[in-house]
Write a structure and sequence with these properties.
Layout: E1 6-10, H1 12-15, H2 18-27, E2 33-36, E3 39-42, H3 55-59, E4 65-69, E5 74-76
The structure holds iron/sulfur cluster.
Length: 78
């Protein structure tokens, strides 16, 4: 389930990539991603803690991850 202010979209084709899962877990300062059994897991209860640092976007391949700002309808992506 999305947060009130923030949601993240991780492309299906990278969700099962263990290296990316670990990179995302390490990158996010507020623990929105967890590497569970080699899969990317989004930790829903932490979504609204997002500080819009874009470190997760830098850690994922281009076009594979978006941070959705539900409060203004825009998104961070590359
Ligand atoms: S933008 Fe920063 S705080 Fe937000 S989900 Fe990505 S890494 Fe975490």
């Amino acid at each position: 389930m999305a947060g009130t202010f923030i949601d993240v979209e991780v492309a299906d084709d990278i969700k099962g990539d263990a290296d990316i899962a670990k990179k995302l877990e390490d990158a996010c300062p507020v623990d929105i991603y967890a590497a569970r059994d080699g899969h990317v897991e989004v930790v829903d209860e932490n979504l609204d803690e997002c500080v819009l640092c874009e470190l997760c976007i830098a850690a994922a391949p281009p076009g594979k991850l978006r941070v959705l700002k539900l409060y203004d309808g825009t998104a961070l992506e590359r």
